[in-house]
Protein backbone atom coordinates (compact mmCIF):
# COMPACT_ATOMS: atom_id res chain seq x y z
CA UNK A 1 0.00 0.00 0.00
CA UNK A 2 1.23 3.51 -0.78
CA UNK A 3 2.06 5.39 2.43
CA UNK A 4 -0.05 8.50 3.01
CA UNK A 5 3.16 10.51 3.51
CA UNK A 6 6.67 9.61 2.43
CA UNK A 7 9.86 11.64 2.82
CA UNK A 8 12.82 10.29 0.81
CA UNK A 9 16.32 11.64 1.38
CA UNK A 10 15.05 15.08 2.38
CA UNK A 11 17.57 17.87 2.95
CA UNK A 12 16.70 21.36 4.21
CA UNK A 13 18.81 24.32 5.27
CA UNK A 14 18.54 27.77 6.80
CA UNK A 15 21.27 29.62 4.95
CA UNK A 16 24.43 27.71 5.76
CA UNK A 17 22.85 25.74 8.62
CA UNK A 18 21.96 22.25 7.43
CA UNK A 19 18.80 21.46 9.44
CA UNK A 20 17.82 18.17 7.76
CA UNK A 21 20.21 15.63 6.22
CA UNK A 22 18.86 12.71 4.22
CA UNK A 23 15.63 12.35 6.22
CA UNK A 24 13.47 9.42 5.11
CA UNK A 25 10.28 8.42 6.85
CA UNK A 26 6.80 7.14 6.13
CA UNK A 27 3.39 7.68 7.69
CA UNK A 28 0.75 5.11 6.78
CA UNK A 29 -2.93 5.90 6.50
CA UNK A 30 -4.54 5.72 9.96
CA UNK A 31 -1.34 5.87 11.99
CA UNK A 32 -0.08 8.16 14.73
CA UNK A 33 3.64 8.63 14.10
CA UNK A 34 5.80 10.67 16.44
CA UNK A 35 9.17 12.35 16.01
CA UNK A 36 11.22 12.69 19.16
CA UNK A 37 14.63 14.22 19.69
CA UNK A 38 16.59 16.85 21.56
CA UNK A 39 16.26 20.61 21.02
CA UNK A 40 17.49 21.61 17.59
CA UNK A 41 17.36 18.04 16.20
CA UNK A 42 15.24 19.12 13.22
CA UNK A 43 11.74 18.06 14.28
CA UNK A 44 10.04 21.39 13.60
CA UNK A 45 11.89 21.74 10.31
CA UNK A 46 10.58 18.32 9.27
CA UNK A 47 7.02 19.53 9.96
CA UNK A 48 7.71 22.72 8.01
CA UNK A 49 8.89 20.90 4.90
CA UNK A 50 5.79 18.70 5.06
CA UNK A 51 3.41 21.66 5.43
CA UNK A 52 5.36 23.48 2.72
CA UNK A 53 6.45 26.58 4.63
CA UNK A 54 10.14 25.61 4.18
CA UNK A 55 11.59 24.46 0.85
CA UNK A 56 13.61 21.28 0.39
CA UNK A 57 17.16 21.48 -0.84
CA UNK A 58 17.16 17.82 -1.83
CA UNK A 59 15.07 14.67 -1.79
CA UNK A 60 11.32 14.41 -2.23
CA UNK A 61 7.99 14.30 -0.42
CA UNK A 62 4.98 12.36 -1.66
CA UNK A 63 1.44 12.58 -0.30
CA UNK A 64 -0.92 9.79 -1.22
CA UNK A 65 1.48 8.82 -4.01
CA UNK A 66 1.75 12.32 -5.55
CA UNK A 67 4.99 14.29 -5.48
CA UNK A 68 4.26 17.46 -3.48
CA UNK A 69 7.90 18.52 -3.00
CA UNK A 70 7.36 21.89 -4.66
CA UNK A 71 3.63 22.33 -4.08
CA UNK A 72 2.62 25.61 -2.40
CA UNK A 73 1.67 25.37 1.27
CA UNK A 74 -1.93 26.54 0.71
CA UNK A 75 -2.44 23.86 -1.94
CA UNK A 76 -1.15 21.23 0.48
CA UNK A 77 -3.92 22.31 2.88
CA UNK A 78 -6.46 21.80 0.09
CA UNK A 79 -5.04 18.28 -0.43
CA UNK A 80 -5.58 17.47 3.22
CA UNK A 81 -2.42 18.41 5.15
CA UNK A 82 -3.27 20.63 8.10
CA UNK A 83 -0.95 21.92 10.80
CA UNK A 84 -1.50 23.17 14.32
CA UNK A 85 1.79 25.10 14.57
CA UNK A 86 4.26 25.26 17.43
CA UNK A 87 3.51 28.28 19.59
CA UNK A 88 -0.16 27.82 18.73
CA UNK A 89 -0.64 30.62 16.21
CA UNK A 90 -4.31 31.31 16.78
CA UNK A 91 -5.83 34.67 15.85
CA UNK A 92 -5.82 36.52 19.20
CA UNK A 93 -8.37 39.20 18.25
CA UNK A 94 -10.92 36.76 16.88
CA UNK A 95 -13.45 34.75 18.87
CA UNK A 96 -13.27 30.99 19.24
CA UNK A 97 -16.03 30.65 16.62
CA UNK A 98 -14.24 32.96 14.18
CA UNK A 99 -10.95 31.10 14.67
CA UNK A 100 -12.64 27.78 13.92
CA UNK A 101 -14.31 29.26 10.86
CA UNK A 102 -10.91 30.46 9.59
CA UNK A 103 -9.69 26.85 9.78
CA UNK A 104 -12.23 25.92 7.12
CA UNK A 105 -11.34 28.73 4.71
CA UNK A 106 -9.66 26.45 2.19
CA UNK A 107 -12.69 24.22 1.81
CA UNK A 108 -15.18 24.35 -1.00
CA UNK A 109 -17.73 22.08 0.69
CA UNK A 110 -18.97 24.32 3.47
CA UNK A 111 -22.37 22.78 4.04
CA UNK A 112 -21.29 20.47 6.87
CA UNK A 113 -19.42 23.15 8.79
CA UNK A 114 -21.93 23.55 11.66
CA UNK A 115 -21.86 19.78 12.31
CA UNK A 116 -18.07 19.75 12.21
CA UNK A 117 -17.87 22.67 14.58
CA UNK A 118 -20.12 20.67 16.92
CA UNK A 119 -17.70 17.73 16.60
CA UNK A 120 -14.82 20.03 17.65
CA UNK A 121 -16.90 21.24 20.61
CA UNK A 122 -17.56 17.64 21.58
CA UNK A 123 -13.81 16.96 21.66
CA UNK A 124 -13.17 20.23 23.52
CA UNK A 125 -16.16 21.14 25.70
CA UNK A 126 -14.17 24.05 27.15
CA UNK A 127 -14.12 25.71 23.75
CA UNK A 128 -17.90 25.36 23.50
CA UNK A 129 -18.30 27.27 26.77
CA UNK A 130 -15.99 29.98 25.47
CA UNK A 131 -17.21 30.23 21.89
CA UNK A 132 -17.66 34.01 21.95
CA UNK A 133 -14.46 34.75 23.90
CA UNK A 134 -11.53 36.19 21.91
CA UNK A 135 -8.62 33.81 21.38
CA UNK A 136 -6.00 36.03 23.00
CA UNK A 137 -7.74 35.85 26.40
CA UNK A 138 -7.91 32.04 26.51
CA UNK A 139 -5.51 30.16 28.77
CA UNK A 140 -2.49 28.45 27.22
CA UNK A 141 -4.19 25.05 27.31
CA UNK A 142 -7.36 26.45 25.77
CA UNK A 143 -5.37 28.15 22.99
CA UNK A 144 -3.73 24.82 22.23
CA UNK A 145 -7.16 23.17 22.03
CA UNK A 146 -8.32 25.96 19.72
CA UNK A 147 -5.27 25.51 17.46
CA UNK A 148 -6.00 21.79 17.14
CA UNK A 149 -9.72 22.44 16.64
CA UNK A 150 -8.96 24.98 13.95
CA UNK A 151 -6.67 22.52 12.15
CA UNK A 152 -9.46 19.91 12.28
CA UNK A 153 -11.90 22.34 10.62
CA UNK A 154 -9.84 21.95 7.43
CA UNK A 155 -10.99 18.31 7.50
CA UNK A 156 -7.44 17.02 7.17
CA UNK A 157 -6.32 13.58 6.12
CA UNK A 158 -2.98 14.28 7.81
CA UNK A 159 -2.83 16.39 10.95
CA UNK A 160 0.58 17.83 11.86
CA UNK A 161 0.95 18.60 15.55
CA UNK A 162 4.07 20.41 16.73
CA UNK A 163 4.59 20.15 20.48
CA UNK A 164 0.91 20.09 21.48
CA UNK A 165 1.85 19.62 25.15
CA UNK A 166 4.27 22.57 25.28
CA UNK A 167 3.76 24.79 28.29
CA UNK A 168 0.70 22.93 29.54
CA UNK A 169 -0.11 21.99 33.12
CA UNK A 170 0.10 18.22 33.79
CA UNK A 171 -3.66 17.64 33.78
CA UNK A 172 -3.94 19.33 30.38
CA UNK A 173 -1.07 17.27 28.97
CA UNK A 174 -2.80 13.96 29.65
CA UNK A 175 -6.02 15.37 28.21
CA UNK A 176 -4.42 16.61 24.99
CA UNK A 177 -2.83 13.21 24.33
CA UNK A 178 -6.12 11.43 25.00
CA UNK A 179 -7.84 13.75 22.53
CA UNK A 180 -5.15 13.11 19.90
CA UNK A 181 -5.89 9.38 20.17
CA UNK A 182 -9.63 10.08 19.86
CA UNK A 183 -9.11 12.23 16.75
CA UNK A 184 -7.11 9.38 15.24
CA UNK A 185 -9.47 6.55 16.20
CA UNK A 186 -12.88 8.16 15.90
CA UNK A 187 -12.31 10.50 12.99
CA UNK A 188 -9.75 8.36 11.15
CA UNK A 189 -7.29 11.26 10.91
CA UNK A 190 -3.64 10.26 10.40
CA UNK A 191 -1.33 12.16 12.77
CA UNK A 192 2.32 13.20 12.61
CA UNK A 193 3.31 14.46 16.03
CA UNK A 194 6.44 16.23 17.25
CA UNK A 195 6.94 16.04 20.99
CA UNK A 196 9.36 16.79 23.81
CA UNK A 197 7.16 14.71 26.09
CA UNK A 198 8.54 11.43 24.75
CA UNK A 199 6.87 9.22 27.35
CA UNK A 200 3.34 10.31 26.42
CA UNK A 201 4.05 10.54 22.71
CA UNK A 202 5.59 7.05 22.47
CA UNK A 203 2.76 5.51 24.45
CA UNK A 204 0.15 7.02 22.10
CA UNK A 205 2.02 6.52 18.80
CA UNK A 206 1.90 3.46 16.57
CA UNK A 207 5.42 4.19 15.36
CA UNK A 208 8.18 6.65 16.12
CA UNK A 209 11.38 8.10 14.71
CA UNK A 210 14.25 9.52 16.73
CA UNK A 211 16.07 12.55 15.29
CA UNK A 212 19.57 13.71 16.16
CA UNK A 213 21.26 16.70 14.52
CA UNK A 214 19.10 16.62 11.42
CA UNK A 215 19.12 12.87 10.86
CA UNK A 216 16.83 9.97 11.67
CA UNK A 217 18.84 7.71 13.95
CA UNK A 218 16.22 5.22 15.17
CA UNK A 219 12.81 3.95 14.16
CA UNK A 220 10.43 1.49 15.71
CA UNK A 221 7.03 1.01 17.26
CA UNK A 222 6.18 3.27 20.16
CA UNK A 223 6.33 0.26 22.49
CA UNK A 224 9.78 -0.81 21.21
CA UNK A 225 11.29 2.61 21.74
CA UNK A 226 9.65 3.00 25.16
CA UNK A 227 11.31 -0.24 26.25
CA UNK A 228 14.74 0.64 24.83
CA UNK A 229 17.29 1.47 27.57
CA UNK A 230 19.19 3.94 25.35
CA UNK A 231 15.97 5.82 24.56
CA UNK A 232 14.96 5.76 28.21
CA UNK A 233 18.30 7.17 29.17
CA UNK A 234 18.32 9.93 26.55
CA UNK A 235 14.69 10.98 26.31
CA UNK A 236 12.60 9.56 29.11
CA UNK A 237 14.52 10.96 32.04
CA UNK A 238 15.15 7.57 33.66
CA UNK A 239 18.14 5.26 33.40
P1 LIG B 1 13.10 22.17 19.30
O1 LIG B 1 12.69 20.93 19.98
O2 LIG B 1 14.10 22.97 20.11
O3 LIG B 1 11.98 22.98 18.75
P2 LIG B 1 13.66 21.00 16.69
O4 LIG B 1 14.06 19.56 16.75
O5 LIG B 1 12.26 21.29 16.33
O6 LIG B 1 14.04 21.71 18.05
P3 LIG B 1 14.41 22.72 14.51
O7 LIG B 1 13.61 23.88 14.99
O8 LIG B 1 13.89 21.97 13.34
O9 LIG B 1 14.67 21.69 15.69
O10 LIG B 1 15.87 23.25 14.20
C1 LIG B 1 16.85 22.47 13.50
C2 LIG B 1 18.10 23.32 13.31
O11 LIG B 1 17.82 24.42 12.42
C3 LIG B 1 18.64 23.96 14.58
O12 LIG B 1 20.03 23.92 14.53
C4 LIG B 1 18.12 25.37 14.53
O13 LIG B 1 18.98 26.27 15.22
C5 LIG B 1 18.11 25.65 13.05
N1 LIG B 1 17.03 26.61 12.70
C6 LIG B 1 15.71 26.45 12.91
N2 LIG B 1 15.01 27.52 12.47
C7 LIG B 1 15.93 28.40 11.97
C8 LIG B 1 15.86 29.69 11.38
N3 LIG B 1 14.70 30.30 11.17
N4 LIG B 1 17.03 30.28 11.01
C9 LIG B 1 18.22 29.67 11.20
N5 LIG B 1 18.35 28.45 11.75
C10 LIG B 1 17.24 27.81 12.14
Automatic annotation (TrEMBL):
Molecular function terms from GO: ATP binding; ATP hydrolysis activity; branched-chain amino acid transmembrane transporter activity
Which SMART domains does this chain map to?
A: AAA (SM00382)
Q: SUPFAM superfamilies from the xrefs?
A: P-loop containing nucleoside triphosphate hydrolases (SSF52540)
Residue span(s) of domain ABC transporter: 5-238
Q: Does the keyword Nucleotide-binding apply?
A: yes
Name the domain of life: Bacteria
Q: Which UniProt keywords apply?
A: Amino-acid transport, ATP-binding, Nucleotide-binding, Transport
Q: Which GO terms describe its biological process?
A: L-amino acid transport
Query: What Gene3D superfamilies does the annotation carry?
Result: P-loop containing nucleotide triphosphate hydrolases
Q: What Pfam families does its record include? A: ABC_tran
PANTHER family from the UniProt entry: HIGH-AFFINITY BRANCHED-CHAIN AMINO ACID TRANSPORT ATP-BINDING PROTEIN LIVF
What family does the entry list? Belongs to the ABC transporter superfamily.
| Protein name listed in UniProt | Amino acid/amide ABC transporter ATP-binding protein 2 (HAAT family)
